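Record type: ASSEMBLY
Status: queued
Input:
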Amino acid sequence: MFSLLVLVPFLILVAVNLSKKVAPNVACSLTALATLAQAGFVVSLPGTLLKTNNVIFTWLPDFKLAIDEFSIVVLAAIGIVAFVACCVARSTINDPGQRATFMNLLLVALIGMNTTVMLRDIFSIYLFVETIAIISFVLISIDRGRLALEGAFKYLMLSAFATILMLSSIALMLLFSPTLELSGLAEAMSVYPNPILIKLSIGLFLCGLFIKSGLFPFHWWLPDAYSAAHSAASVLLAGIITKVVGVYVLMRLSLSIFGESLHIQAMVMAVGALSIITGAVLAMTQKNFKRMLAYSSISQVGYIILATGVGTPFAFAAAAFHFFNHATFKSLLFVNAASVEKRLGTMDMREMGGLSNRMPATGITSLVGFLSTAGLPPFSGFWSKFMIVLALWAAGKYFYAAFALLASILTLGYMLILQRNVFFGKLKDGLGGVKEVGPGLVIPQLVLAAIIVLVGVCFPFVLNKFIFPVQSIFLK
Amino acid sequence: MQTNLLLLTVFIPILGSFFLPIAGRISKNFRNHLALAFVAASFLLSLIILPGVLAGKTIIFTKFLPLGFNFVLYADGLAVFMSLVSSLVSAIVVLYSFGYISHYDDQNEYYFMVVLFLGSMLGLVFSANLIFLYLFWEATAIVSWRLIGFFREKNHVLKADKAFLVTVFGALVMLLGFINLYQQTGSFDLLVIKDGLKMQAASSLAVALIMAGILSKSATLPFHTWLPDAGVAPSPVTALLHAAVLVKIGVYVYARLFVATLNVEQFWHTAIPLICGASALVSAGAALIETDLKRVIAYSTVSQIAFIFLGLSIGNIIGLAGGLLYILMHGLAKAGLFLCAGIIEQKTKVRDITRLGGLIQTMPLTAAAFILCAFSVMGIPPLGGFFSKYMVMAGAFNSGNLLIAFTFLVGAVMTILYLFRAFNLVFLGEPKTEPVKEGEPVMVFCVALLAFLSLAAGIFIYYPDKVVGTIVQQIALIK
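Status: finished
Output:
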């Protein structure tokens, strides 16, 4: 069954490219259906299926695809965000050729992400991360604007640097381990006498991942890339792609490889905390809607990384929960941005004001996204953030717990600036003719807002069914 | 049966509020009356559960949830008293809004927010789990933010943001305090926490952190500045949120946590009255020099809240009873003052009291209601405010700390000064504005009703006093 997650997008990709006549809209619809099916499928999985046999495919001794409780959460997020990106592409990319290109890229990215989530050896993970990175460069520069090319170029340069770091790290790993399969690697590390070599190899790989996730101090490529990219591309990039290639991989490695090392944990937590504060403070100074969201993304990813660094099962589950919530609320905010851009043709917040009056659905859903990002109850973001704080506290990291909690006020601060400038307030002169966007953008907004509200209100169900089981990975 | 009534009390306004925007599409009148019905239903239900609760039967509803996040609703005398006061004032304010808000845009949002506010308030009042208490606490903050910025002016939205940021910051610090309690007892459930900390005092770190939240929500020094700024909201909102109900959240949570549930170290019984004494004096001084009518009344609220804290924190029974009584009396009277200010503002379009005058000639009913409510806030017999202020002061003198007692005595004298000043400038003297007519009948009826209730609560002080006396006995008994 799980092979379908890779096969279906692949078949769609082949089918829509067989003939030039297939309209991009058909590709859109097929992909949207497939992604919805993916989200529905993984969410409806009974818990027992996972306990019996989680390896689903083996090729060489090292290369296997497996699935566990954490993969489920990530796969659900991928499905939802990819669906939303399809909808946004359909209503915002007008040129059919560009739309076809976008759909092709999205399908390849989808295959790449779904596979990455199921891979269990570090070299294949590296390969897929690089593949997705190449797709990202094209995605960012899809409309060939000067800023878009600049954003893509920055990402390309930093990414090349990350490649070098990750490849060197893999070379170092081969010095002490006969295999690159994660559990074998962990075993080899535990018996190898030279801890410096091990830490060096892990540290190099981590730095590569920090670049890919856009974490402090490698965060500066991300706002350029997100804000210059086309709306649909920025939903996809910010919502899920950088999260999978950076954050997911980091979390996966923390599970099996560096989870035990105190130094590495301390470093990861420090990077997370610094990203939280840097992202939030810089977000406050932004004048561009999407740039502000991009900095906010840095800050929110910081929370996930901070929790990953703790190394306890509970903290890991909290991080996985925030991963999912961040994917939904950040995608929602980017769809809001896409709607505003479609109507106003600009992302400069100084030219906006009082848009809630003219665009009620966008205004209200942006409130849901904002309150969830700021970690206010009863929205989903509150529960995951609060679990992170509890996990930090339970692990004795009192400073980080207080820091993570009080940093929410910064999130609230920049989100209020955004609301004040864009949605809440008197309608700016000259915007009287603005109308609400069409159903192509309203529906994804409503879907995401509904997910955020439902996850927040039905949190006991979500925790019991999806999040607490994630802790069981630590027993395996 | 009683449990169901309790659930209905909380969830009728919460769930009902979501129907109001839909109802507003059908008919304005229908929506308005529906809103009033939801609020009145909560009041009546609280009234129905009151006798049983006063007889000593507490109502508990528990739904077990993971991580110690159990959803517990717990109705004892204190909670039902608070829910009665909140829903009574809310009902009068909603009725007043029929007249006031009909002139403005976004009415659907207005009624939705006001009724949702009451629901969140009642949820907070009955929650016996700190997480849900926090949840409802923030819900009231979100509603308050939307309502302060209701007129959407740039300046208003900025002030709404300020109120939001200050109160949420306080709440986050408070949440840290809750986590601290969680560490000590392993639960967020107040009933479990109470058992766990029966013999010892709660850690002073937790108390200090939680106090930050309480002081910010109840607009007490040093977190008080958001309240006068929040006066840019529509007047019924100011009356409901920033005078009668929302600012009592901090006071209520203080009573719930540090009087009825936990033991605190002895020095808090001196430290908190001292902070509040400073708050009472500073804000009374500000009220004396302010020229904006709503800001004068808002500073007066800051000052009067300090008296409530004094009563609750001074550590003797008469003070505690006085403090609780004060919540009722101040809620009625201060809501009346703000609603009067709303009538004046809407009719004259002026809020600067130095540019007003002689309104008693054209607005006799409003003037009479204003002065009655002002008398109650000042503490002049036989109005209700006299009894509560007397009992709080008696508590202060009984505690033996004369510094505190005299500080508040000065505060009480200043209350009389600034309220007379406001009344004098607005209603007496020569008219300085265009002659205006009395406000709309429904609005005048509401202020007259509040003035009448303030008076009646004083004349028939036996009944509120009996209720409060029973609550205080319950609290003393379980500790």
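Annotation: Chain A has 21 helices and two strands.
Annotation: The radius of gyration of chain A is 21 Å.
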